[in-house]
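Supplementary Data S3. Sequence and structure tokens for construct A.
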Amino acid sequence: MAVRSHPPELLAPAGDWNALRAAVANGADAVYFGLDRFNARHRATNFSHEDLPKVIRYLHDRNVKGFLTFNTLIFSDELEDAAAYIREVAEAGIDALIVQDVGIARLIHRIAPDLPIHASTQMTLSESRGIQFVREKLFVQRAVMARELSISDIRKIGQETSVPLEVFIHGALCVAYSGQCLTSESLGGRSANRGQCAQACRLPYEMIVDGKSKELGDRAYLLSPQDLAGYDQVADLVDAGVASFKIEGRLKSSHYVAAATQTYRGAIDSAREHKAFELSQEASHNLSLTYSRGFIPGFLEGVNHQQTVEGRVPKARGLLLGRVSRQQRNGIIVRLEDSVSPKPGDGVVFDLGKPDQQEPGGRLWAVEALGPNEALIRLDVDFDSSKIPNGCRVWKTDDPVVKKELEQSYQNDPIYHRVPVHVKAVGNVGGALTIFLSDDTGLRVEVSWPGPLEVPRKHPFNGELLREQFDRLGDTPFQLGLVEIDCPQPVLVPKSILNDLRRQAVQKLCELRIAREAKAIAEPEALKTLRSEIPKAKPSTRPPSITVLVRNLDQLAAVLEDAESVSMVYCDFEDLRKYKEAVPLARAREIPIGLAPLRIQKPGEEGFLSPILHAQPDAVLIRNLAALLYFQEKLPSARLIGDFSLNVANELTAAFFVKSGLERLIPSFDLNWEQFQALMRRVPVEWFEPVIHQHMPMFHMEHCVFAAFLSNGRDFRDCGRPCDDHKVELRDRVNADFPVIPDTGCRNTVYNSQAQSAIEYLPQMQALGLSRFRIDLLRERGTEVQSLLTTYRRVLAGQEDGKETWKKLRVMNQLGVTRGTLKLV
């Protein structure tokens, strides 16, 4: 369905001015960047609000678009600031906003309808149904694909939707689905959905299989993916209809941006010209030296669990120089990799297999070639080479010559992209000369010289002279295209006049281009209007009730034994086929039952939804936009409950989902207590069903640790399904064990080792008007389930004090409980 009307775009990152310059000079068609608020890379330098007009002017003067990242969840108390921010950036002339929060997308369109909205990868868009939904409901003009999609997935999505697709093509891979990682929030209150990722995926873990440590040799970084490098896949992606190729890296250096932009400029241009692209040795080395944790095609060629995570190192290594062959008194002899040669001044590090410790290395002081593949290297005289073992890998981590060459690529701010302009001269003898200058977007200016034009004695004004004088466009964003002269008689025009007219025309055309940049503000008070559309809250008359999410039939049976205290039970089973057994069990006890589909849906996976249709539950937990549309159409009798993965963090988002057909919502797990209260005070509280007890789902990922480390299989077809036979935890450096649970789609979720409890807050939640509360089980057994339900039921009934019961829970649970994301006020 998608029709590409423009050549594919190269989109580069910029975390500071040098990176911005590097992207522009090396061929980026667009640059994405963040300001100091509301963006998902708080650790980047970013740009200030004062910088914004200068950044936009710099980009537009070089025919490059600027996309601003607004890709975080926004809390209720921040919406006024967010609205002011939208007005400010719209008037500044930004070309698009990259957005995660669906409520913010609604607000942008109401404030500035002409400001394009790009759905961030944080929206977790992985199939066409949800993408078309945000196009129609949120007026999204581009969708940034989840990084876990293959080329065939992307091609299928492109065929099924009219929305232009943007694909990550190079850079770091998150192990978890973007927008679905709660690890930093769970462990330290630093939300990845708020740009504060602590990168727990890059830490070492021990694999515990059935209670015993699994020997994995030197592989300890079990959740640390290698980096994406998709230059070989560009041609196929162009053929699949991809509109934009995105380089990851707002935290990276200008050298990285320059090297990556050069590479993908070449790959895209080759694909457009139907030429084969082959990465040069120099370009390959530059990519590795500027940043590399090892390059793979990511998921573009499909799932490959033996490739995604190498497991030996979590950080950039650079370029493999070779291996230590032997020691000599005057240095170290290294057997070199093909095509790699060291030189004095290069930085090196010796890989002792302990990347979490300080590794030996430094600058090369001298290099002596001993043959075609061997060299003697010497470091500083104080360097102790006696501890460097034979056979260890040597990495080239820095090359000052390469850095200097990359810096030179943007040193003088060259203009890579120029817009063709059409010049037309009109005049008659005795009259004025008028010059019309127009660009390819339809902008047109005219300038005149009153003359009068004279009959030439020799050298009449002609196209050659006009082209010669108007081709001097120097540091302007233009290049000369079509040249026309409409002079019925020969005339004389001095060169100086033509030069002056050229300068005037170019200036006026530039001014017109600037004037059209600002986006009109259609509804300055849009936030107030949207809030006024939300129904007023009514005092709740419902007695408090508990809903429970169970993971298996045994837990379901335990809950149904105490059915009087439960108003609904949700099933979230690894094996969806067992749903047909679960529904009759709940019906027999007259307890409403809801079923959970997979958290992620990819093209071709609607079959995973059919077990829910066949089971005919009372309700469905909606975990993604595709499921919302699917079950509205296929199971109209079911009540639809929006789960936490929809990331409802403010009243605009909540109202959108309720209006779209959801009966109740689980609030975002990113909310702390103050933010939670702020949301509840602005909505009908009957919309919400907070989770008050759970093991926080931290990483939700395509990467399967069962297949990767308990098999040699690439994917579910040849892994042997070790997940059917083994129970796995990942043990961190403080001996906390994090359960790993697979789902039917072979995706893994890593859960917090400790349960998070809101039991101290229950009286305050009830005071807000909340009456329905959810408990999520994980691996609890029958008696534990019943004891847990009894404890929460008594506190809700006012029979026990929340603070005292908190202490009781800490004793009941083997690992205790945590307040997690909540904070007492």
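Construct B, processed identically:
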Amino acid sequence: MRKFKTESKKLLDLMINSIYTNREIFLRELISNASDAVDKLYFKSLTDKSIELSKDELAIQVSFDKDARTVTVSDSGIGMTKDELDRNLGTIAHSDSMAFKMENDEVQGDDVDIIGQFGVGFYSSFMVGKSVRVVSKAYGSDEAWAWESDGVEGYTIEPAERAEHGTDVIITLKDNTDEDSYDGYLSEYGLKDLVKRYSNYVRYPIRMEVTKSRELPKPEDAGDDYVPQFENYQELDTVNSMIPIWKRRKSEVDQEEYNEFYKTDFHDFADPARTISVHAEGALSYDALLFVPSRAPFDLYSRDYQKGLALYSSNVLIMEKCEELLPDYYNFVHGVVDSQDLQLNISRETLQHNSQLRAIAKKIEKKITSDLEDMRDNDREGYEAFFENFGRGLKYGIYASYGSQKDTLADLLLYYSAKQDKLVTLAEYFEAMPEDQPAIYYAAGDSVERLNKMPIVKTVLGKGYDVLLCTQDVDEFCFTAMRDYGANEDGEGAKELKNVASGDLDFATEDEKKEAEEATKENEDLFKALKDALGNEVTKVAVSARLTDAPACVTTEGPVSLEMERVLSKGPEGPDGVKSQRVLELNAKHPVFDTLKAAHEAGDNDKIRLYADLLYNQALLVEGMPIDDPVAFAQNVAKLM
């Protein structure tokens, strides 16, 4: 027995147990090696005209024997001599494919696509096999040789028989244990599934004996009640697709093909809303095929949802969900990225250096943004449907980035315009603003209908200004993170985003402000009595310069609005968590104010407390906020009646 070169036992044990985390990729690695062997022979035929090959000769075959518990991967590639078997399989981490790739890098072109890099993929077979036998016959040689090892101490090389050039890798599977079963690799379905998942786009046909069904001829003496009979039979069939759809130009693929690929590979029954095809060449070459779904998956906003694009290198699947390729706010995008320029780590399961990946991710993000902008401008109905499904994630992207992503995402947002009675972008709102409008106004609540009826919204509309009606819990947090919108290239001209329910909303003229100040001074004792009646519910009671026909409203001081308080009350801290600083504003021109004055002048403190409670809770209800004691409120209404 020959001993493995290098610190064999330790290194082999490291590779079998540490480098690879998913044992089922052994088939991917062996098929990749087989593809490299076929590629080398094909390349040799391009440079040596004496070699004549037909396309049918260039193939890979996968088979299994249930009784012998073996899985075999065979190729019709260049094969190996005795010395090459010793060098390539006896020296761990020696990559003949990498050497070939470097030697022929300038001349191999697109016709040859060598996958191997590290010379360790073969040893992944020991994760599932208790022994591995490799029978190989080099092209042009009359001799075949067999390399065999149990993956522990060493290996043997002996003469063998093989009719044609190429290599067979025969794995004798480990015995099942209570923890691990290997029987899944001894079935047609199990092996086909692995081929489809990891090696579907290897450029050479991968063939297997598959079970098919056919109808038997109808017997001549069959009666009218004859039921057709079928039989199963075995047939050698190609089980991989070979040509990836993402490497074909968009002009060569119709939308129906894209739709079918999307629905099959990403398990959706509906066609995608958008298809984005990218072919980049240059310092970093890659192909990408991206899909924007037409509906949101049920678990999109759950913790279990996993974003990411399928990452391929030279048509071989590296990661099913590469999260680094998508920002969180585009987590709904499905698709594939394929690049042979990626620097993979030794296991091919993760990336050794991610600078290339970051560069690809940045370009993909720009492409998605550009496509969504095109959809917004040229298919408004489709974009509104898209935004209904995925707009929350775009808003959250601005909030989660503390506003740093607003330049990317702000123009993709849609909000309902109270003035225009439709969804508008921030740019459309900004363009329609009167010249004297000091800010961009919005109101936050649980429905457009209720927000439209708010007194303060009517006040703003009465000034000729529009109000964006925000009905999602993330809206106000998004606007708070954005702070402003509309700056020009010089960073000037931006308008502040302002909640109409904030206490610093200043629409009053100088005369109105003067009237409010005088009313406040004249009724100072009344306001103190109302504040005492409400206690800690409000920070103060004041005259409003913003109300027209409503008797009172509740506004806030500080960074936390009523809507923020409502949203945060649903969090872990519950209703006892973050509280806003509430202000009860009274309309001094409303008849109710005269009633309040009369009660105060009469010294009727019970009535003052009753009125204070009614006005405050009524204002909260108008704002869509819960009241602390609905029963007491109802009793007070009945008492007043």
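The chain has four domains: 2-212, 249-378, 381-499, 510-640. Residues 381-499 form a domain with the Rossmann fold fold (CATH 3.40.50.11260).
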